[in-house]
Specification:
Layout: E1 26-30, E2 34-40, E3 48-49, E4 52-53, H1 55-71, E5 87-99, E6 108-120, E7 125-135, E8 138-151
Antiparallel strand pairs: 1-2, 2-6, 3-4, 5-8, 6-7, 7-8
């Protein structure tokens, strides 16, 4: 488990995304196998459709949250500013997605990701993660995705 105080982490320093594509506001919890993130759905979010976060937005949120599990291992433990950020990640496959409900503008979602498998080649990391997204404690999305992550 990382000993960093997660309240010190500005997630935008660790993800390549910027508004309007940044779909994670903060890290709620993180360890070697899992992460939990929070995202407030604002009216100006690029993925809003008919007053709700679209399916595409939910998948992008899950992917950005999940990337933190493996991505954190590329940084020094005390690098809470993201100065070592030289990563690029790709979704290589969306193996499963089940969307039960679209969250509405003004709601906050919590997305949790758990590492299923990881293979490091030395140049690239291939991994698979399960994700679950909640409004309060109600499950609204579950997915399984594969990622490729490498340093640039």
């Amino acid at each position: 488990m990382k000993s960093t105080d997660i309240s010190d982490i500005d997630i935008s320093n660790f993800l390549p995304h910027r508004k309007p594509m940044l779909m994670v506001d903060s890290v709620v919890d993180i360890n070697d196998d899992s992460v939990a993130t929070k995202f407030y759905i604002a009216e100006d979010c690029v993925f809003i459709k008919n007053g709700s976060l679209s399916e595409t937005g939910l998948i992008e949120n899950a992917a950005q949250a999940a990337s933190g599990v493996v991505g954190q291992t590329f940084f020094e433990k005390d690098d809470v500013k993201g100065t070592g950020n030289k990563l690029v990640g790709y979704i290589s496959a969306v193996r499963k997605v089940e969307i039960l409900q679209l969250p509405k503008v003004g709601e906050t979602i919590i997305t949790k990701a758990k590492l299923l498998s990881r293979f490091d080649t030395g140049e690239m990391t291939m991994c698979s993660l399960d994700t679950e997204t909640y409004i309060d404690e109600k499950l609204i999305v579950s997915s399984t995705m594969n990622f490729l992550i490498h340093e640039v």
